[in-house]
Amino acid sequence: DDNVVFLTEDTPHITGGRYYSWWLATAMKAAGFKVVIYTNRMPVFLDEFKDYPQPEIVIASNLYSVDVNAQFYVGSPIVGSLMACRLAEKYRKTAYCEIFDPFPMMEKYRGEHHYPFWEELIKLMKRPNVKIISLCKTCNEYIYPWLNKKRDDVFEIYPCINNKERDKSPKQMEKKNWVVFVSRLSEHKKLDHCLDAIKKTDCKLQVISSVDEINFSKMVKDKGLSSHAVPAGGCDAHSDRRLRG
Fold this sequence. Notes:
With 245 residues, the chain is of the alpha/beta class. It has 8 helices and 10 strands. The strands form 2 sheets. Strands 3-2-1-4-5-6-7 form a 7-stranded parallel β-sheet, with helices on both faces. Helix 7 (191-199) links the parallel strand 8 (178-182) and strand 9 (204-208). The radius of gyration is 19 Å and the shape is globular.
């Protein structure tokens, strides 16, 4: 029970939530924690983390069958979070669930929708022993009333910047402003909204994806942003191949 346990169900393409979980797991391993990741399959992006301290990985074809005591649990996205909450309750520990799209925020911008399998998870996340990991402070403001959380129950954690990648980069005289978008490129991910926002700034957008269902190159060209939005290694239409960019 001295391990930190991550639980996450994987898919055959790059997704932001799974990538984000691996960021956190490798960062915690580098910080000296004993980390074990329970997942249903190896992610397509695993090679991207090969240069960093490796958490133990346990393949569980059925995450619902995982029963392990731990220091605390980190869950993502749905089944992973559900099991993190259940195990934390069973062993009287703390669970951390990753919430990137609070439902009240999505309802504000996209209208009300029904999302399957969330009923039990939402009830569990409202319990005092469950904390929330969010993307940013903007998301936090929707999470507090939705899940009955206080400010010290919700933690925004930004992607890790590490010295290994920094030292590989050429020295630059000036800083550059980059925004990174990690996800499959589907219509509902609203990459066009990101492009519209980037157009109003001096930032550039770096896109990490393995599935392009929106014709990324044409969208960028149509918006006149060819020099402001670039793929990390390429975004091939309907491709599940691993990116190495």
